[in-house]
Amino acid sequence: MPHRTIVYVDGFNFYYGEVRGTAFKWLDPAALFARVLGKQNELLRIRYFTARIQPSTTNAHASIHQDAYLRALRKAPGGAPAAPPARRPPRKNPHPPPPPPGAREKKGKGPGENPAPPPPPAPRRDAALSAGRIQ
């Protein structure tokens, strides 16, 4: 009985390490991995993960080319999916968990350092007027 197998592909390393600059850009991933795995494995699925690339000054159409490549992979036998959807950066938690028991709050600049003293108060304008210094 063959082993049920799912192939996970790091798209960046696969493309730049094996495909780029060759005639094999439009290969059939299912046929490739089935051949590599042999008859002792049953290829169930191919999962293709990659980062989205940004256009650059040297290749303004880089993201368009990547989109075409990922569309072709989606249609390939084995259904190699495209890049996961873009994710937003995580938001700061408005309600962070409480500190662990025994944790001390950090006060001041650090251990053994005192913060700078506050500046002296500015002279009051009404006091200068009554002293006759400002006209």
Can you describe what's shown?
The chain has 135 residues and is of the alpha+beta class. It has a domain at 3-75. The protein is 28% helix and 13% strand. It has helices spanning 11-19, 29-37, 62-75, 125-130, and strands spanning 3-10, 41-49. Strands 1-2 form a two-stranded parallel sheet.
Terminal Cα separation, in Å?
A: 103 Å
- Find the structural class using helix and strand composition: alpha+beta
Radius of gyration: 32 Å
Shape by Cα distribution? elongated
What is the number of strand segments? 2
Average pLDDT number: 75
Number of discrete helical segments: 4
Largest sheet: 2 strands, parallel
User: How are helices and strands ordered from N to C?
Assistant: EHHEHH
Return residue spans where pLDDT drops below 50 for at least 5 consecutive residues.
81-85
Portion in strands: 5-15%
Helical percent range? 25-40%
- What topology, given as strand order, has the largest sheet? 1-2
SSE layout:
Elements: E1 3-10, H1 11-19, H2 29-37, E2 41-49, H3 62-75, H4 125-130
Parallel strand pairs: 1-2
Provide a quick synopsis of the model.
The protein is of the alpha+beta class. Helix content is 28%, strand content 13%.
Structural descriptors:
135 residues, single chain, two-stranded parallel sheet, alpha+beta, 2 strands
